[in-house]
C-alpha cells in the first residue's frame, strides 16, 4: 500500500527509506498513500470510500508507531462522475480526528480519460472551500492510467502536472481563493522547461504575470531524477516555490549508469547545487513549514 514518503521534508533526509527506517535527521517524512494504489478508477464509489478509509487508517497507524519519522497526508475517495463534495467528509475526518496535515487531490479520477472539469471549474469549489477552512494544502497527483496511450509514470503523471498548471493559468481560481495552496509534483511536469511558453501564454490570454497570477499559490517539488533537470528547475523557478521531494518507491528505481547512484536519490542533486545554504534551508524545511501550517504546528509542539 505504501511506497511514497512523498517528502516535502521538513528537513533534508538523505536517502529514500522504507517504513520504520531511522532518518538521518530526526524530522519526519510526510507520508501518503502511493498514488498508483489509490486507483479511483477501480470499482464504484463505495469501493473507493472503503478503500480510502482503510488506506488513511493505515497511514494514521504507521504514524502512531513511528511518530518521529512520519507525518500524515490523506488519500481522497474520488471516483469518476462522483461529485467532489463526496470527498469532504473523509478530508474532515482525517484532518480533524486523525491529525493529517494535507491531502492528495486527483484532477482526473477517470485514470487518463480526463472526464472531470478543469480544476478552475466551480465543480471543485466546495472542496476548495473546505481546504481553506481547514488550512490544508493539496498535492495534485493522478493515479494509475486506464488509457493505453499514456504510460502511468512516464506520461500520465507528467501530463497531469503540466495540465493542472495550464488550467490555473487559464482561469482565475486564486482570485476566488487567495489562500488556496497546491503542490505540483515531479518538478512541475514540463512547466519549468517551457517557462517562456507559459509566460507568453499568460500575456496572450491577458492574464497577470505568472508570479502574481499563479505562483503565490502553486509550488513544485524536486522529484526530478537527474542533475540537469534539478539545475533547470532552480534556475527558472523562484526558491520560495520549491519544496524538497523524494520517494520511497520512485517511478525509476534503478541505478543511473552515468553516475552510479540511484536515480531517485533526489537529495544528492540538491546538495550539488551551487546556491546559498539559506536557500537550501528553504527547500529542505522552511517552505514546507510555510505551506503546511499543521505540519509546522506539529513540529513546534515537539520543540523542533
Which characteristics define this entry?
single chain; 304 residues; alpha/beta; TIM Barrel; five-stranded parallel β-sheet; two-stranded parallel ribbon; 12 helices; 40% helix; globular
Question: How does this model look, in words?
Answer:
The chain has 304 residues and is an alpha/beta fold. It has 12 helices and 7 strands. It has helices spanning 35-38, 45-65, 88-97, 125-134, 152-170, 173-176, 195-204, 210-213, 227-236, 267-271, 277-291, 293-301; strands spanning 29-31, 70-72, 103-105, 138-140, 182-184, 218-221, 242-243. It has a 5-stranded parallel sheet. A two-stranded parallel ribbon has the order 1-2. Helix 4 links the parallel strand 3 (103-105) and strand 4 (138-140). Mean pLDDT is 87; it is low at 1-26.
Q: Report the oligomer.
A: single chain
Shape by Cα distribution? globular
**C-alpha Rg (nearest Å):** 18 Å
Which sequence of strands runs across the widest sheet?
3-4-5-6-7
Assigned CATH architecture: Alpha-Beta Barrel
Helix share bin: 25-40%
CATH topology: TIM Barrel
Total beta-strand segments = 7
N-to-C span: 29 Å
Q: Please count the helical segments.
A: 12
Poorly predicted residue ranges: 1-26
> Main β-sheet: number of strands, strand sense, barrel status?
5 strands, parallel
Could you give the order of the helices and strands?
EHHEHEHEHHEHHEHEHHH
CATH class: Alpha Beta
